[in-house]
Design goal:
Elements: H1 3-24, E1 28-29, H2 32-38, E2 46-55, E3 61-70, E4 74-84, H3 95-104, E5 109-114, H4 118-127, E6 133-137, H5 139-149
Parallel strand pairs: 1-2, 4-5, 5-6
Antiparallel strand pairs: 2-3, 3-4
């Protein structure tokens, strides 16, 4: 299995975990192509996976891992990006592009970061609180965040 495919599958497992947490918290999953139209018309918490939400820094359509809407807590939506570096490689070099793209779009975002290089984690965490990147967290930190904020 190639490094890219393995990392993609690991990222999908992380995304599945986040979806399970949202399900447990009473969120309902909706189709990604319907999310942006539905979010303000439903009275219950909803989320979508792999949803297009704007453009990246390079002007391409930006797809996020998870976007959620809560009628009381997250009226303006929250994006959750799942980043997993399972093999040696350059995925962590994409973090500056990710942060710039997050700040180009209107949604507050948290990044769940697993299996990373320490210097990359340090830099990425230093960007939290600047612009739309609210928080960078480990899976355990995400669990704590979810219980309090989602």
């Amino acid at each position: 299995m190639s490094n890219g495919l393995h990392a993609q599958q690991s990222g999908k497992r992380l995304e599945n975990y986040v979806a399970e947490v949202l399900d447990d918290l009473g969120y309902n999953q909706v189709q990604s192509k319907l999310f942006l139209d539905l979010k303000s018309h439903v009275g219950n918490p909803v989320y979508a996976r792999q949803c297009y939400t704007g453009t990246s820094l390079s002007g391409r359509r930006r797809r996020v891992d998870i976007i959620l809407h809560h009628p009381e807590k997250w009226k303006g939506c929250l994006v959750i990006q799942c980043k997993w570096q399972s093999e040696k490689g350059t995925a962590d070099e994409k973090y500056p592009f990710e942060v710039l793209s997050i700040n180009k779009n209107p949604y507050p975002t948290i990044i769940i970061l697993e299996s990373y290089k320490p210097k990359s984690e340090e830099w990425l965490r230093s960007q939290a609180g600047k612009g739309n990147l609210l928080q960078v967290c480990s899976l355990g930190e995400f669990d704590h965040f979810a219980k309090r904020n989602l």
